[in-house]
Design brief:
Distance between the termini: 69 Å
Strand content: 5-15%
CATH class: Alpha Beta
CATH superfamily: Alpha/Beta hydrolase fold, catalytic domain
Oligomer: single chain
CATH topology: Rossmann fold
Shape: globular
Number of helices: 12
Strand order of the largest sheet: 1-2-4-3-5-6-7-8
Order of helices and strands: HEEEHEHEHEHHHHHEHEHH
Radius of gyration: 19 Å
Length: 312
């Protein structure tokens, strides 16, 4: 009994000393974004939040990754908005977009991006996707080739192959309750694992994720994360990469801790990157040393310079 009480006391002390102990719970719409937020209502009534910076005729649409949101692109937008029209999207269920339940399929997300383009009267655009957003961008380039001018894949999902058993592992590991009950320490650890050396100005991603646990739509967000994982697993693109026709820029951090999957396919990120690049006919691969999975935030200048050179 004394041992149990000691453990409880220690847990209370650790919790009390946590730098996140005094964070105010926030609704998703209360999150502070580094740019003006616009909203569009799609045909099915979903509301999509997005930024729209820059005046160029050449638009880049930025698609975030699993569990993330559009502010993950803000450094890139600040560096690129003088040259391009930069549109960063909150996917359905994420950020300030509405939280209706949906399939989480990559094709569903691709359809949403095209619907948004229709609302914005954009005939085509360069599509830039990070992680899961990269897999969405690939699906979009295959389904809507005339709407995708160029493809920019940043540490993209979709270059790995998984067996039926490995796919089931993802489904078993990712549960709504598990996402919902992720504790503060794990939230921060998960974020840190996205970087080779997490910059101080990425801390807002941790505090936002902790604060949103009190939002009324938080459970739907958790459901969206789980369905998105299933969507990636159930809609692989590895066997269709050779059908991509758009000029494609592929960027990977050499120290990506998430690709390849460290539990299922331990190995070098560069090996996976080369597999994808060799399959995509008109592609250029850039590997960034001393850089993790969140490449566009950790090395924004290098990312943007590579993108600008590619666009020329």
């Amino acid at each position: 009994m004394k041992k149990i009480m000691l453990l409880i006391t220690l847990a209370f002390i650790v919790s009390s000393c946590s730098p996140y102990g005094n964070l105010t719970k926030m609704e998703f719409d209360e999150l502070k974004y580094p740019f003006e937020v616009h909203k569009a209502t799609l045909d099915d009534g979903r509301i999509i939040a997005f930024s729209d910076e820059g005046k160029s005729d050449h638009a880049i649409i930025f698609i975030h990754g699993l569990g993330s949101y559009s502010p993950g692109w803000y450094k890139s937008i600040n560096l690129l908005k003088d040259k391009f029209r930069c549109i960063a999207v909150d996917l359905p269920g994420y950020g300030k977009s509405s939280k209706e339940i949906h399939s989480g399929r990559m094709e569903f997300y691709a359809d949403v991006i095209v619907q948004l383009m229709n609302k914005l009267k954009l005939q085509n655009a360069t599509i830039a996707g990070h992680s899961m957003g990269g897999q969405i961008a690939i699906v979009m380039s295959l389904k809507y080739p005339n709407r995708v001018k160029n493809l920019v894949l940043v540490d993209p999902a979709g270059f790995e192959s998984f067996t039926a058993g490995q796919k089931q592992w993802f489904r078993d590991v990712m549960t709504v309750e598990g996402v919902k009950l992720t504790n503060t320490q794990s939230i921060r650890a998960n974020l840190v694992s996205n970087f080779y050396d997490m910059p101080d100005d990425a801390e807002f991603m941790v505090t936002d994720r902790i604060a949103m646990r009190g939002a009324k739509d938080f459970e739907n967000y958790c459901y969206t994360v789980v369905k998105s994982v299933n969507g990636m697993v159930d809609e692989p693109v590895i066997d269709f990469l050779q059908n991509i026709t758009q000029p494609t820029l592929i960027l990977f951090g050499e120290n990506d801790n998430l690709i390849p999957n460290p539990y299922l396919n331990p190995g070098k990120t560069e090996d996976i990157a080369k597999i994808g690049a060799q399959k995509i006919p008109n592609s250029k691969l850039v590997m960034l040393p001393n850089c993790g999975h969140f490449l566009q935030f950790e090395k924004p200048e290098v990312f943007c310079n590579s993108l600008i050179e590619f666009m020329r």
